[in-house]
What does this fold into?
Amino acid sequence: MKFVLEVDMGDTGWDGNAASELGRILRYWGGNLGHFELEPGDGSVVHDSGYREVGRWSISGE
It folds into this structure.
């Protein structure tokens, strides 16, 4: 299986705050993964701190 996280940081990397925003996304989704079976086909959209959809994570069977 493969866990894939893809996040679009936009043209400016959150106006130079990419490290803090990516850290927040990783902490939030890392803690939230316990609510999923983590089987191929599982996944969800990812939002930034402004609640804008910026990507998604997924589990594939690869």
